[in-house]
Structure formats: C-alpha cells, structure tokens
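Hi support team,

I'm filing this because I wasn't sure whether my run with iron/sulfur cluster finished correctly. The job status page said complete, but I'd like someone to confirm that the output block is well-formed before I use it downstream. Pasting the exact inputs I used:
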Amino acid sequence: MQIRTAKSAGFCYGVSRAVKKAEQALDEGKPVATLGPIIHNTDVVNAMQERGARIISKVSELKPGEYVVIRSHGVAKNIYDEIHALGNPVIDATCPYVKRIHDIVAEETAKGSFILIAGDEQHPEVQGIVGHCQQNFFVFKDKFVLKDFFQNLEKNFEKRLAIVSQTTYNSILWRDALKILPMQDFEITIYETICRATEERQTAAAELASQSDCMIVIGGKHSSNTVKLYDVCSRYCKTYHIENADELEILKLSDAEKIGITAGASTPAHIIKEVIFTMEENLNRSPETEEEIDFAQAI
Ligand code: SF4
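And here is everything the job wrote out:
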C-alpha cells in the first residue's frame, strides 16, 4: 500500500492567521469570545474552549470587556456596528481575501451597481458579503440559477452589475457562470475572488485522486471547502471524508493499493500527521502487510 499526501493540504493562510490571533489573545490572558466557532474543526475549537474561550452566536451574548474575535469568514457591516455600540474590543481575523470582497461590494454598491454573488447563501462568508451590499444583491449557487435571474429580470432594469464569488467557490462552476453572462446586454464588471489557496488545494487533490485507488479527505463535516474537496476527489476514485484518526477504523481500505490524503483549510497539520501515523500502525498490525511503508516520506 502506498500513501501520499496532496501537495497542498490543510490550514490556509487566513485560517492559520485567525487561530494565531485568538491563541495570542488567550496567551495574553484576555477574556475571549469568538463569534461562531473560530474554524470548522472540533478538536481545535475544544482546545480553545478548554483555555477559556467562549463561543457566542450573537453580539448580544458578549460580556462587558470581552474581546470578540471575528473569524476568517468575516461578518456583515451591521455586526461591526453592533459591537461598536457595545464598546467591546475587537480582534478582527477576517481573512484579507474576504475583506477585499467586502470592499469591492461596498464600493460597487456605492457606485450604484447591482451585486451578483456566486456561492452558498447559507454560508457565513456569503452572509458577511451580503451584509456589505445594502440589500442590493443576488446570490446564486450555479449557472442555472444565474440564468433564471437574467431571464426574470424586469425589462426596465438598467443598473450596472458587478459579480464576485465566495472565496471557496468551485472554479469550474465559476467559469460556467461567467460563460452565460449577457455581456452584450449589460455592463458587468467581473471580479475574480476565488482564493488561490482553495484552487491550489482542489487542483492538487484532483491530481492525486486521479492517481489513487482511494482518497481520504480530512476536515470538519460542516467545512464547505472540505466538502468541496470531497466532491472533487469523488469524481476520480472512492473517497472518504473523516474528521480525525478516530474514524479510520470504519473505512474499507483493504482493497486500495494507492491511498491519497488531503485536508481542508481548517485541518491542523497535527491531525493530518495523526491520520497517517494511525494508518501506519493499523497496517503494521495487519498480518497481510508484506511491505514496510516509509511514512516519514509520506508525510
Ligand atoms: S481559504 Fe483563502 S480566503 Fe478563505 S480563509 Fe483561507 S486564505 Fe482566506
């Protein structure tokens, strides 16, 4: 059995930055509350809670003087306003790539443009982006919904349009959406806002999946970028989505000769390593194992 990890896997810049900011505040003994779980990773979130961080779902749950951490997904403008009204100190860990989208949609809205947003309207990042558009937006999940939007547009619609995407939007779906934009009928400004970290991770996962019998995708069950990695890999081979090494036992890996491993943006390196080491242990325990595997190389 051969085990390989994708060239790009695990924590991205924005998530790593957010976790570091929250941990630094805890190191300094500050009372910390994160607005929602800091990342989609139960292990990391539990460890922070053990150190005293609270998870709140609404600004009104803040205690006086508590530092509120805005996670990498970012938040709507009214959330900043609510925090400022309460006077709590803010640790803004909004990823700079997400912040750029907030700035784009706010500027375009101020110029009078209508904003099209490719993404999942339930996702916190999209809800944050929407919250900088002043009710002047349409969220679509794919080209079919976008097509319906233009078909149902009122005849007298004369606004300029600007189009952005959620940073973790699928690049294939994005290109499909751009192809159906009626550029001849409207003035539309296209902003490329898919994060390269996501694209690189998806490309590396697809490349590895195409050379593997089976893929293991490590990451939170609610992490949208991990679920997308799972979708990408599933196109090529049998794919499993696990959160950590504890779930390895229930996977059927015995028929696979080449196993690929990748991980979502909120998966810390130690969890990836633990999965690989657990696989090593399981294999070494198996009587059918004939070859020793160089796991140091696999990592
Ligand atoms: S995936 Fe990209 S945009 Fe999202 S947090 Fe990470 S670096 Fe930022």
